[in-house]
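Quick start: what a row looks like.
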Amino acid sequence: MQDWQSAIKGFELHLRLEKGLSSNSIAAYLQDIAKLHTFAQDELITNLTALTYNDLSKFIHYLTEKKLAAYSKARIVSGTKAFFNYLIDEKIIEENPAALISAPKLGRKLPNYLTVEEIDNMISGIDLSLPYGHRNKTMLEVLYSCGLRVSELILMGVFDILFDDGLIKVIGKGNKQRYVPIDQYTLKLISLYLASERKNLKPKKGAEEILFLNRFGGALSRVFVFSFIKDLAMKTGINKKISPHTFRHSFATHLVANGADLRSVQEMLGHESITTTEIYTHLEQKQLKETILNYHPRNKK
């Protein structure tokens, strides 16, 4: 008989130590397994090893009745499969009841992205006369021009900027390191920020090498970056639903639209699989389709 809590704790350590996943990814997996645990308790299944394929099929049906979005349902199924694969590897169970369960088929979800003009308008909308105006402008330029995840941005160090080489060192998912080219304009903004606002801040212990500091001398939070971008979008009249990740999508979309090859974009974004990067060719095709439908003479009434 296997205790749920000890199995979940072991799974968490497996994700952290062996898979090297981020805290956010681990939290998402654990939330999914918590849903499975709650279902099992409702079904009076106290022994984890007693779960069968039929039980998991009922669990998938249970998720459907909850009217979860297809993407949420697919993620939970994926997390469940990963959990049972872990149990097999650890020899906690002998047969995998999740082997044959399948997630709902998903179409490609095209992410929101901004045009170059919209990005320029947002960055131009930052008031440089306000406290930390130069930091905020530099922060958005780095986020966009390097295609970073928000976690990569807020943890970037001063010494990760390789001025002479025109590169930045990025620590991505799973602590994987990559180098991304950075343009001279953005490097100049970083230099100005370091010589002004950053120089006048006293870093807190442990944040001495962090590039972008808050007013208390600590690293910026994800929440701050999300809120700042949301407020700036409203201020500049952009009605799209955007987040820090929108800048990353925009970076990749603009590269592909201007002829960059997918392998290069994959390397810069730090995607493990090029399949993930291929979404940006679909964005370009969507834009092309809209242009044709708008301007093709046979589509005119």
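That is the whole record. DSSP finds 13 helices and three strands in the chain. The chain has a mean pLDDT of 84.
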